[in-house]
Specification:
The chain has 213 residues and is α+β, with helices and mostly antiparallel strands.
Amino acid sequence: MGQLNAGIVPVTPFQQNCTLLFDADSKKGVVVDPGGDIDRIQAAIDGNKIDIEAIWLTHGHIDHAGGALDLKDALGVDIIGSHRDDLPLLQDLEQQAHMFGLEGAVRNVTPDRWLEEGDVVSFGDHEFEVLHCPGHAPGHVVFYNRAAKFAHVGDVLFSGSIGRTDLPGGSHQTLIRSIKEKLFPLGDDIGFICGHGPGGRFGDERRTNPFLT
């Protein structure tokens, strides 16, 4: 098994961390949350010679899923995730785009496969456990690689902050429960990439994040 590598391509006016997860040796990988700027994502894939096997979505907000269908068409791969509770969001992407003045840049999406708590997704030899972590979005999922002590947490948790809960389907109480009952028990030494800004470690967030202490 080669080393698990991650590269971030900031996309859209929301500066969302579209993430390329790939094996250092085989170059097999996935794209997590292609929110837009598909040409930039494609350039990063080509520049690193990554063989993309699938598109993974953490949740159905426009800055994470807005470019998924265009990238699927370009790469010929399946869209996997999020949880089916996000169907209303994913079917509303074009309306979300209208609200932000991004008409024509976004298409509604129905994933090829929904994800459930306890599912396992993989590329090459790298397996990720799926955790359903609602609160920011009803169907938000987190991808956790036990071997690498690494998680992609989308917009559930940030360095020093947490996901917004004032959007449709959001719940502050539910989000805090997702973090404290699903993420933190994985261990203080788990490193994470999030949907915006720098990542961190669960232990640091447990001890110092003002929303969680």
